[in-house]
Design brief:
The protein has 186 residues and is of the alpha+beta class. It has helices at residues 112-129, 133-150; strands at 10-15, 25-34, 37-46, 53-59, 65-72, 81-84, 89-92, 97-99, 108-111, 156-162, 168-170, 177-182. Strands 8-7-10-5-12 form a 5-stranded antiparallel β-sheet, with no helix packed on it. The protein has a 4-stranded antiparallel β-sheet with strand order 1-2-3-4, with no helix packed on it. Strands 9-6-11 form a 3-stranded antiparallel β-sheet.
């Protein structure tokens, strides 16, 4: 793969594409240097034949269930990064919403503002598709509250929970992050 630097920090190998069976699909793995977090690996799959693209993150040391809770208080918290791996759930309890994992979902990285924008778009689409005014009004109430969160007028909480331990929050302010690790009994 010419578009990737071939140095010791990236491991590029071939794999069989699960979508089309191409034996020449590319798999790129890379250990990420993330402060405060040990041995996170990025795994990216790409098949030039069928166009499959998938990226995920894995904690290579711990597979314990993790719950990250970040308390958003002001604009500087907008820079906080949310890394949601394929089994991670992102929720904002004050808003009563969550972004749940789905089969085949790739990992994504967003800052707090990006997560709020994503939720806003989903609420907008839900409102447009509801039939009753009562449901539309309920969604609009959430959108109004979300707008206050987007403008950092009200504090709120972002929770990232991952039973596989692969999702993380990279905080703008370390003291606002709580981490709970539930030891596996496997």
């Amino acid at each position: 793969m010419e578009e990737y630097k071939r140095d010791s920090s990236y491991n590029i190998s071939k794999f069989i594409c699960p979508e089309c069976g191409n034996e020449e699909a590319d798999m790129i793995s890379h250990i990420l240097d993330i402060p405060h977090y040990d041995d996170f690996m990025m795994l990216s799959l790409h098949c030039k034949l069928c166009g499959l693209r998938s990226t995920d993150f894995f904690n290579t040391r711990s597979k314990d269930h993790t719950i990250y809770t970040y308390h958003v208080e002001d604009e500087k918290d907008g820079r906080t990064k949310i890394v949601r791996a394929s089994f991670g759930q992102v929720s904002i309890p004050e808003l009563g919403v969550s972004i749940d994992p789905k089969t085949g979902t790739s990992t994504w990285i967003r800052n707090v503002e990006g997560v709020l924008d994503d939720i806003n778009m989903k609420l907008f689409l839900a409102k447009a598709n509801y039939d009753t005014q009562e449901l539309k009004d309920a969604v609009q109430e959430r959108m109004d509250l979300l707008s206050k969160f987007q403008n950092f007028e009200l504090p709120f909480t972002i929770i990232v929970e991952d039973p596989e331990g692969n999702s993380i929050i990279l905080p703008a302010v370390d003291s606002r992050l709580e981490i709970k690790i539930i030891k596996s009994t496997k």
